[in-house]
Specification:
The protein has a domain of about 30 residues. The chain is built from 2 helices and 2 strands; from the N terminus they run αβαβ. It has a two-stranded parallel ribbon. Helix 2 links the parallel strand 1 and strand 2. It is elongated.
Length: about 60
Amino acid sequence: MALRSTGFNSGLDIGKSYYVATANPAPDHPALAGDVEADLVVVGGGCTGLSAALHAAERGLKVVL
């Protein structure tokens, strides 16, 4: 079964953004090895995620971002 976009702009052929068209491909990275323990795991490194991680770390929690 093929997936298709049904979003608002699904019928528009807007092409790639300049960034997508000119960005270098992401480098390959090996999978992380070992176990990590944390008091808080933050998924997402945007403004809110970074702020949450910073504030938690400043209060002594072990944070994984």
